Every structure is written in C-alpha cells, then in structure tokens.
Amino acid sequence: MKVRIGVGMAGSVARGTKGTPPPGLGDQVDAIADLRFDSLWLPEVLTAAAPDPLVTLAWVAGRTPKLKVGTTCLLPGRNVLRLAKQLATLDVVSGGRLLLCLVPGLTHEPERSAIGVPTAGRGAAIDTALPLLRRLWSGAEVTAELPGATLQAVTLDPLPVQQPLEPWLGGNGPAALERCGRLSDGWLPALTTPEEAAAGRQVIEAAAAAAGRSIDPEHFGVSIGWSETPISDRARASVAARSRGGDPDVLVPVGLDALRSVLEGFIAVGFSKFVVRPISPPPPDRALAALEDLAAAVLDLQT
Q1: pLDDT tens column, 150-164
Q2: If phi over 0 gives left and psi between -120 and 50 gives alpha, with beta otherwise, what is residue 171?
Q3: Rounded distance between C-alpha atoms, residue 260 and residue 263, angstroms
Q4: How far apart are CA 217 and CA 239, in angstroms?
Q5: What is the pLDDT of residues 221-249, one digit of tens each?
Q6: Alpha-carbon span 37 to 217, nearest angstrom
Q7: Are the C-beta atoms of 184 and 104 separated by less than 8 Å?
Q8: 92: how many CB neighbours lie within 10 A of its CB?
Q9: What pTM was estimated for this model as a whole?
Q10: CB within 10 Å: which end of the chain, N or C, has fewer?
C-alpha cells in the first residue's frame, strides 16, 4: 500500500489582492514540493474568498514539476463539455499530474443558490454528467441532450494525458456511497472516523461489485481538516452541521500529534491517500515554518 500525503490550502492562504499574485503562494508551493509532499489541493467553493482552483493549479503545475495538483471540483450546474475540456487541458499542461475529486457542493447559502442546482437534484446531476465526462475523456464521439446544452457528435480535444483520467467522489451518505461504487474510481470523504470510513468502503466495494466493476484498493483516501489550536465555537458548529451531528472533538484533530494519530488510524484500516488541510491558515510570517512542522510530523508515514 502506497501512502501519499498532500496538502490542502485554505482559501485565505491562497488569496491575493487587487490582481496581484497571491502573497507568498509561490514560496509555499515551492516548500510543499521541496518537503516532498505528494500533492497540493485547492477546493472549489464559488462564494469563498479564494481563487479559482483550475486556473491556480495550472499556475502551480507550471511553477513546479514535482507536485501533483488536485481539486475537489463542483460537478452539478456545470456545462459538461466545458468542464471536460478544462480538466483535460489541466491534465495536459501538468503532464498528467491532475488528481480529481468531483463533489456536489455545499448546501448552505449563498453557495447553494450560486451552484444553481437544488440540493435534492445534485446526485442525479452527477449520475448524468460523470459517464459523459468519461466518454469525452476517452475520445469517443458524444451526442447527448443535457440541461441547457446539446452535444451533437462532439469529440473532445485535447484529451487528458492520463488514460483513463480517474475521477474520485466524496460523500458519506448511503446514496453517495452507492454512487461512488457504481461510478467512480476512488473515494475521498471528509469529516469521518477510521471506523466509519472502513464501513463506508465495504458499502462502496459491494456497490461496485453489483455494477460489475471494481475500485483499486489504493484508491481510498480521506481529506482531513486539522487545527493547530482548539477550534472556535463557530467552526465547531460548522463541523457538526456538515457531519450531520458528528463530534468536532473526534473529527478535527488538534495539534500535530493528534493529526498523526488520526492518519495512523486510517492507514490501519486500509486507507492510503490523504489531503491534510488546516481549518485556519497560519499567519503569513509562519506559513513556511508551519509546513516544515507538518512535514516533520507526518511525512515519514509516506511509503
């Protein structure tokens, strides 16, 4: 089992001002690469104070050849052809270094309205769009009627370097687990425990078998939000709401020792790909030191 650890960057870390490059982002990208983390991840939240992940990751890929570039990318509400082309292009310009987890998006306002697809309809949107993305990325000719668009004998160009480009899905609910087994190439949940993740994996693998397919055992990972200091009451409430009543004290490790312990717990139940992301970014003058501390605490777990 190959354990790999990537860094998720909080939006406020990557944000620039007045059209200037994000302050310190280049130094942090260089440090993440030089410290030998596996990847850098940026989330897509339309209403967050953060840059567009696909544009920023293209810049990251051009800056360093050492890092894989990953994103949790919104799927509902997207023009499927445009998204297929954007992601294929990012895989091309990065030399096949794109890591992709497709997500339904957050359910609170103002993000819910900005996505433009009712929460109850997002699962069906993924069911429709993901098979079409796969066909487009394979180079097949696609004709399809979609909400707001019609594809008539369309063939994508450029195609991804990775053949196949392997999209993962997230989510912890029953429908999300079943969809992951039926449609995806991997699972990257968040706000879960090792025990819950192990149980979810069994559901996914059963769903995959029922669909006549399988998921690579190396393609199970977790996105872990952690904090250097005890989280605020506001953050606790957000974690509890997003996890449907989960205990923030269990779901959010506080301190590097706790983070390492959580990683070890997931590795023990067969999970091997991780995105570790600070709940709150460190002050700018400590950003590089924080990355060095993180590397010293967890990178020896990579195999």
Answers
A1: 999 999 999 999 999
A2: left
A3: 5
A4: 28
A5: 999 999 999 999 888 888 888 888 889 99
A6: 21
A7: no
A8: 16
A9: 0.93
A10: C
